[in-house]
Write a structure and sequence with these properties.
With 192 residues, the protein is mostly helical. It contains twelve helices and no strands.
């Protein structure tokens, strides 16, 4: 599961219980603050986590990606699959990807997705590239998920904010949610 995939990479806390709490609080904060259902988030993480770790994306980065895409109506299952496909292509052929978009990617270091998104956003802003051309490039490279990529490019600043907010504000989110649920009369009655 998620704990097995990410516990080694979580360095902000120690011990199994601390890491489990961090994961749980981060998931609950994502659910609380974004247009995402837990089942959808699980499906997205299932697809994204394998390639995400290899692409230098932390657990929090991946939650931020899925949250941002869900907020813009790309559901987590699709978001996870298409982001996984895109990251896989970048990892396998970084020079071809960089050349196609006329951006800089250092094939000798782990993928920096945020940098890639920012570079493409700059090109779109300058008029050096259009959304239609992004779709054409994706087709030429044999990639699916151009809509996901364009959404991440368009909202890269929001993505960075979402990731930072998860880092800063997810502590104790699970216990706060539990307290809210226990305050509901029907829940309290059912527990009697």
């Amino acid at each position: 599961g998620i704990y097995n995939n990410f516990s080694d990479s979580i360095v902000s806390t120690t011990g199994a219980m601390g890491k489990f709490k961090f994961i749980n609080d981060s998931i609950v904060a994502t659910f609380r603050d974004h247009q995402v259902e837990i089942k959808e988030l699980r499906d997205g993480m299932k697809h994204l986590s394998a390639m995400g770790k290899e692409s230098n994306l932390t657990f929090t980065d991946q939650l931020g990606i899925l949250a941002t895409l869900n907020d813009h109506l790309i559901k987590s299952g699709i978001a996870g699959r298409s982001t996984q496909s895109m990251l896989s292509k970048i990892a396998k052929t970084p020079i071809a990807f960089a050349k196609a978009f006329e951006i800089q990617i250092d094939p000798m270091v782990p993928i920096d997705l945020i940098s890639i998104l920012e570079q493409v956003k700059k090109k779109l802003g300058e008029g050096a590239l259009t959304a239609s051309q992004v779709g054409t490039i994706f087709n030429r490279l044999g990639l699916r998920g151009a809509k996901t990529f364009i959404t991440l490019v368009k909202y890269v600043d929001e993505l960075k904010e979402n990731i930072q907010k998860l880092k800063d504000q997810s502590g104790d989110a699970a216990s706060e949610m539990a307290d809210i649920m226990l305050d509901k009369p029907d829940v309290a009655f059912a527990r009697m």
